[in-house]
Amino acid sequence: MIKIQKKNFNFSEENKKLLKNNSGAIVTFIGVVRGKTKTKKIQSINIECYLKMAEKKLEEVEMIANKKWKLNNCIIIHRYGKIKPGEKIVYIATSAEHRKNAFKSCEFIIDYLKTKAPFWKLEKINSKEMYVRLKKKDEKNLKKWENII
Amino acid sequence: MKILYFAWIRRSLEISGETINPPKNIKNVKSLVNWLGLKSKKHKEVFLKIKSIRIAVNHEVVSLNNKIKQNDEIAFFPPFTGG
Q: How large is the ipTM?
C-alpha cells in the first residue's frame, strides 16, 4: 500500500495493519526532519512532489520489493508540503516470514526513494530557503541494488 | 504538449508548467530543450544549465536523445531528494 499525502500519519496505527498477517518479522523505517544541519538550525522544510510520477514510482518500488523478498505486507507513506523539525516525512514498513527479507526490503525501499522518487526538499534556515542537493552517498547506496532495478 | 517544471526550475521560470505546440521538426528532448530556450530570457538562463536538469517523458526519466510526441507530458527537474 502506498500513500502520498500532506497530513501527518500515526505510525502506531500503520504498524497494526502489519500484525494482521502471519509474519515472523516486521521492520519499520521512519524518516524525520532534523532540527539542524552541521552548523545551522533548520526552521522547516517544504517538500515538493510530482504527484503522478511519485505514485507510479512508489508503486514500482513496492512491486519490486514484494517480488524480490516475498513480503507479506508493505506500506510506504511519503509526505509533501511544509514539515517542521521533529515531524515525520516518510514511513516504510515491511513484513516477511523471516527477518532478513524484512530488513533488506526496507533498506532497499528507502535507498530507492532517496534518488528515484520525484520529491525535492527546500530547507528554510535563518529565514533563507535553499534546495537540498542530491548526496553522493545516496547515489552510492542505490548502486548496490542495481541487479534488481 | 504539456510541459511541467519543478523545484528551482519552476521558481526561476515563475511558472509550474505550460502547454506548447512546437514545430514539427522538434522530435526529441534535445531539440525541444533548444526550442524552449528561445522562448524567453528566463527560459534561456534555465536551459543553459541543462547538465544539472533531469527530464521525464510520461513519468519516466529519459536522456536528451529520447523521442517525443505531441501528446507527451514532459517534466524538467533537478535530481530527486526524496525519503
A: 0.94
